Amino acid sequence: MDIQELHKRPPYGMIAILFFGAFVAFLNNTLLNVALPTIMEEFNVKPAVVQWLTNGYMLVNGILIPASAFFIQKFTNRKLFLTAMSLFTLGTALAAFAPFFGVLIAGRMIQASGSAMMMPLLMNVMLAAFPVERRGTAMGMFGLVIMAAPAIGPTLSGWVVEHYSWRTLFEIILPFAALALMIGFLKLKNITPNRDIKVDILSLIFSSIGFGSLLYGFSTAGDKGWGALEVYGTIIVGAAAIIAFIFRQLRMEDPMLEFRIYKYPMFALSSVIMVVVSASMFSGMILTPIYVQTVRGISPFHAGLLMLPGAILMAIMSPITGRLFDKYGARMIASIGLAITVITTYLFHKLTVDTGFYHIMLLYTIRMLGMSLVMMPVMTNGLNQLPMSANPHGTAMNNTLQQISGAIGTAVLVTVMNSRMETKGTELAAAAAASGKSLNSPEVMKELAQQATLDGITFSFLVSTFIAAVALFLALFMKRVKPPKTDKAIVKKFQTE
């Protein structure tokens, strides 16, 4: 289909099918965390083993998302969607009826192999279907899908696990996944251009080892500590493999992932801002539940309810933010959003052991409002500077960096929290002993642990405040851009518009 004709008549029906499939896949991402203790008990596995249900899912995403640029250029969007949804549906069925733990792990990894392609695929269809001046609104609707699904996930899973078997989580998803696959088979057409490119096996190996190892290393650092060979060993191996991967891509005429897109200054700036914002955002999503459940003693289900309004508001704001982006550009909106994020993150630093439930809910909701004004405008502004044929590489790069920076930010801030907790715990124990309190008393030790945990969490929020402030400073340098018609530096490799 001609690009001008496509822009005049965007294929809304096809995009709706992709949205439905993506919503089902993204909803699955946040469903399982609450059910892990129940699964651990049923299959009689240890915490370190059951974590592979989330770690394995994350690793498959880390391996496949960087390769998504190759798949999107090589295959039609119809073939990719049908393959992705078929894998996701098969994985969901395996997980729902898993007779033992190994089958459940296999089901989750097959699910991940399908869902990993959904976000890059949908983003590339959106970028192809809409002209630059309407992309903000379109990407805002995309944001509604990717934010609404995770918003529902934790609360829904908390309720299901309390009343039904953990298998119900997969049984709920299965018919919707099958429906999305059937509708896609009957109605989906192809609109994205394809090229006859060949996969470079060595690049795929370097990418898989590099991104997979890096994600795994940072994601397990908070639990096992930076001194564990499993952590620093995998990070070193991952970093070495990524360096080898980058050098190989720069020497190739037709690379798997094009790093030369960083010669576009606004795309490069948007990538840096997204890395910083992701580190701050994902860490906040981890620290808040720890505070709510550990310090305040609120149940997991009510902790999910506490975070639900913020997640729903973030989803609702996505299309609104998209329209604002089309009208005002990224700098003003992102700067306002980051200012809100900095202020609310600092206020989280002021939490106490008896901060009210609704006060925490309001603070978290306003913080999510700030975040909703940042991610989509920053990402879209950067992608707008790329030639259309470079979009698969831009979206693959953004999605990969977002995952890695989220893992790194979470690992660093959880480590900061644990270190601060240990230091504060030692100080409090010494002070309690000096004042004549018995350290053998369960009540005294519980109070000391609560105070130490609170201090660790609030200090981590203070660090997160400075991270968000860096993103705010960088956002001031953003400019509104349009894609070039051609680019001599990469014209040999990219199709021109």
Automatic annotation (TrEMBL):
Signal sequence annotation: none
Residue stretches making up the Major facilitator superfamily (MFS) profile domain: 14-483
Transmembrane segments: 12-32, 52-72, 84-106, 112-130, 142-160, 172-189, 201-219, 225-247, 267-292, 298-316, 328-348, 360-379, 457-478
UniProt xrefs under PROSITE patterns: MFS (PS50850)
Keywords: Cell membrane, Membrane, Transmembrane, Transmembrane helix, Transport
InterPro entries: EmrB-like, MFS, MFS_dom, MFS_trans_sf
Pfam family, one: MFS_1
Domain of life: Bacteria
Membrane topology: Multi-pass membrane protein
Location of the protein in the cell: Cell membrane
Family from the record: Belongs to the major facilitator superfamily. EmrB family.
Cross-referenced PANTHER family: MAJOR FACILITATOR SUPERFAMILY MULTIDRUG TRANSPORTER MFSC
Protein name (database record): EmrB/QacA subfamily drug resistance transporter
